[in-house]
Description:
By secondary structure, this protein is mostly beta strands. It has one domain (2-242). The chain has 1 helix and 21 strands. The protein has one helix spanning 226-242; strands at residues 2-3, 5-7, 14-16, 23-26, 30-36, 39-45, 52-53, 58-62, 67-70, 76-88, 92-101, 106-112, 115-120, 123-134, 141-145, 151-157, 165-172, 174-176, 181-194, 197-208, 213-224. The strands form 2 sheets. Strands 2, 3, 4, 5, 6, 12, 13, 15, 16, 17, 18 and 20 form a 12-stranded mixed sheet that branches. Strand 9 and strand 10 (76-88) form a beta hairpin. The termini are far apart. The relative contact order is 0.19. The model is unreliable at 2-20 and 228-243 (pLDDT under 50).
Amino acid sequence: MKVGVRMLGAGAALFATAGALAGTISDPVIQVQASSSLGSGTLNVPFIPGNYDPVTGEYRWSLAEPVDITADGGGLIATIESLSTFLMVDPLVNVGFVATAGPSDVTITITSALIGFTPISPASGTASAQLGLTDNDGNGGTLTGNHAGGLGFRADYNGVVPTGTTFATLVPTFSVGMFGSDNRNGNVPLTGIGPAVSNMSSQYSFTFTANDSASGTSVFVVIPEPASLALLALGGLALIRRR
Length: 243
């Protein structure tokens, strides 16, 4: 399948869940922007109501077949070999992908859905990400992160990357040798964020060399701060005792 700028299918602009797992998942659920010396193209993946389970608050989507992102003149910018997301309004954001560059170096930005939820105060978060690179044409390759500090992944809260508050930037720039393959990863352990956290998103942004393949997987989770959970538990015990 070839796309320049295209929406795959049709979805709701915003979806509200019901019950204890009330929250929202923005549309599109993933956006892939790719550019090279040949031009630029965008792949938008819309929210599909049938992919959401209201009982568990989970949304799952994966690409059915590879998609070529092409310039207006028809030149190949990149092929998205695989792309998937697992979202929870609980909340959690997980994104994975494999992409192969066309005949020119490619800059790719993959932005997740914005997950909205009842404000968590205080909140804690954890994030991890991995990026891999394979040289396919025998001249070595480099993957350069485009976020601050030359890092390739960013997780934000209270706003869509890059307009939110940064929780983590992960995965440094690296290179591989002739027909080589390697990866880099990073993580932030459970860390206090602060009060009134109400939404979250994540984004890969990097440039990699012509004809080579890049891959990635990531997860970003926000939960009530452990100390607040302990206080809630103690409060529950106090109520039980008063009864």
